[in-house]
């Protein structure tokens, strides 16, 4: 794991020596500074009031203003005013973006260390402690760069790579607890970075076997047991869904199983992640425009990798198994055809209508194998359907399942970490769309309710008695807009934070 361009530390207030080259203070969109301004003395209060009255900064999210003044012994010499937006509209994402902007501002102004008072106030119901976490996560997340293939001297963003220390203010009595929370959060961020690194790798450098090698490498440093099934073992265990998707490629498929059992007799969570390392659509070939983005079609599997890395690094006393079916979906003389009929590992037969609906075929076998391990809960994550993007855009992932209690818990976990989930129904009538005249089911149900019929398909490979949730991350797995400071262009690592939060709340 690469060294973080941003280092996040804490400092206790009150103090008579403010840290760093400058101190950051938030301003709301109505031009009102946060309450923490009172800690800086009358001199700064008058100066801030003067510049806000003059309209130099209006407090809109993304604005900033650097002020310099020769203060007393207890005052900082430089103050960075940061726009927070409307006070009643601040969200965890707002604070994450502020954290990212603080690091960027420090780099722009040549600061090696920047103190921050934004973490001292409660913002729109978000406690100071949670503000610390979101600001820290934004600083780390916004500093992430995937520059492995940029040669030295050929990177216009190299200036941003300078290591910056962001020091967040907390009350002294909260210091020990917040240090522990930051340490935990840093492990989660590293897991997310791993998921982003894997997601950003191109298909020629991340084949199914290369992904399996990453799992073996991870197991060398962490208490994770890894098992990899090659073509021979997949065939022996009748994993014909995985084999069929990968048969058109010269890079054979794999099933990667990662076990972390540190929770004694506690419950077992199985997490399954789709990893199509490159998806051309197969014989049902995708349009050429933006096909390069299909390197991201393994984001579900990447999330499982990041999750397993995070919980093992945190040494959580939990039991989790990560299953990642990996295949490359390419057209060739050996590729599966529309109209083919496949017997999956569960014994159910599937008629392949569209070879671009391949993710559900590899997940069907992996979910069946997950059932054989007798977990207490199963969650799968997949960039499964373009229909999910049409339904929810890029703001939220879809979640489906039959256990309402589990869905509510996942929703709360997602809200807490800023990964939104929106439930879609699995009404029995939708199952009718998968009826086949020649097999137990078709792999697609037509254009109507495409995200839901994808979930319906997967539901046929799980035990209804075991709580299960399907999360379609097709719209949230990557972001090439560059609109979020805390999310650089590329893979988002979505799912890692959600799974870590869920595991900590439900398994410990």
Task: Give the helix tally.
Answer: 14
Computed structural class? alpha/beta
* Rg (CA only): 25 Å
Gap between N and C termini, in Å? Answer: 27 Å
Q: If you average the pLDDT, what whole number results?
A: 94
Q: State the total count of DSSP E strands.
A: 20
Low-confidence stretches: none
| CATH superfamily annotation of the largest domain | Zn peptidases
How does this structure look, described?
This protein is an alpha/beta fold and 508 residues long. The chain has two domains: 6-169, Leucine Aminopeptidase, subunit E, domain 1; 190-506, 3-Layer(aba) Sandwich (Aminopeptidase). 34% of the residues lie in helices and 21% in strands. It has helices at 42-53, 92-108, 128-143, 175-200, 208-221, 231-236, 240-246, 299-314, 359-372, 386-392, 404-417, 428-431, 450-459, 496-506; strands at residues 6-13, 22-28, 64-68, 78-85, 113-116, 164-171, 225-229, 254-261, 268-273, 275-279, 319-329, 341-343, 349-351, 377-382, 397-401, 421-423, 441-442, 468-472, 478-479, 490-491. Helix 3 links the parallel strand 5 and strand 6. Helix 11 crosses helix 14 (496-506). The chain starts with 5 loop residues before the first strand and ends with a helix. The model has no long low-confidence stretch (mean pLDDT 94).
Protein traits:
508 residues, alpha/beta, Leucine Aminopeptidase, subunit E, domain 1, Aminopeptidase, nine-stranded mixed β-sheet, six-stranded mixed β-sheet, 14 helices, 34% helix
């Amino acid at each position: 794991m690469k060294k973080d361009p941003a280092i996040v530390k804490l400092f206790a207030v009150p103090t008579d020596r403010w840290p760093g080259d400058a101190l950051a203070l938030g301003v709301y969109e109505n031009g009102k500074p946060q309450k923490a301004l009172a800690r800086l003395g009358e001199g700064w209060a008058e100066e801030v009031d003067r510049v806000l009255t003059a309209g130099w900064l209006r407090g809109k999210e993304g604005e900033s203003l650097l002020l310099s003044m020769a203060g007393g012994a207890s005052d900082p010499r430089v103050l960075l005013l940061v726009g927070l937006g409307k006070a009643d509209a601040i969200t965890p994402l707002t604070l994450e973006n502020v954290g990212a902007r603080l690091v960027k501002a420090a780099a722009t102004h040549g600061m090696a260390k920047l103190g921050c008072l934004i973490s001292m106030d409660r913002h729109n119901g978000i406690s100071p402690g949670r503000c610390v976490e979101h600001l820290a996560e934004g600083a780390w997340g916004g500093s992430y760069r995937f520059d492995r293939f940029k040669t030295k001297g050929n990177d216009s963003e190299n200036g941003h790579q300078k290591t910056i220390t962001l020091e967040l203010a907390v009350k002294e009595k909260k210091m020990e607890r917040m240090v522990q929370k930051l340490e935990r959060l840093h492990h989660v961020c590293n897991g997310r970075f791993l998921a982003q690194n894997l997601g950003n790798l191109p298909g020629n450098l991340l084949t199914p076997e290369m992904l399996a090698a990453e799992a073996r490498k991870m197991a060398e440093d962490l208490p994770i047991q890894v098992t990899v099934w090659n073509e021979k073992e997949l065939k022996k265990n009748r994993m014909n869904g995985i084999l069929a998707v990968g048969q058109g490629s010269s890079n054979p498929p794999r099933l990667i199983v990662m076990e972390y059992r540190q929770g004694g007799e506690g419950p077992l969570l199985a997490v399954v992640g789709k990893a199509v390392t490159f998806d051309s659509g197969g014989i049902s070939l995708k349009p050429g425009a933006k096909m390069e983005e299909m390197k991201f079609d393994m984001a579900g599997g990447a999330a499982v990798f990041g999750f397993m890395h995070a919980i093992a690094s945190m040494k959580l006393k939990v039991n989790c198994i990560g299953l990642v079916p990996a295949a490359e979906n390419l057209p060739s003389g050996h590729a599966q055809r529309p109209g083919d009929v496949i017997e999956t590992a569960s014994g159910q037969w599937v008629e392949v209508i569209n070879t671009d609906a391949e993710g559900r075929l590899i997940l069907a076998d992996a979910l069946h194998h997950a059932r054989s391990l007798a977990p207490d809960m199963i969650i799968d994550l997949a960039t499964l359907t373009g229909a999910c993007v049409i339904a929810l855009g890029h703001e939220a992932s879809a979640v489906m399942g039959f256990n309402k209690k589990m869905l509510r818990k996942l929703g709360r976990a997602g809200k807490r970490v800023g990964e939104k989930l929106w439930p879609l129904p699995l009404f029995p009538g939708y199952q009718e769309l998968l009826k086949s005249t020649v097999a137990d089911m078709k792999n697609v149900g037509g254009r109507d309710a495409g995200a839901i019929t994808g979930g319906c398909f997967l539901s046929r490979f799980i035990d209804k008695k075991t709580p299960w949730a399907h999360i379609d991350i097709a719209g949230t797995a990557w972001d090439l807009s560059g609109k979020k400071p805390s999310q650089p262009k590329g893979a988002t690592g979505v799912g890692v934070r959600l799974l870590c939060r869920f595991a900590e709340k439900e398994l410990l």
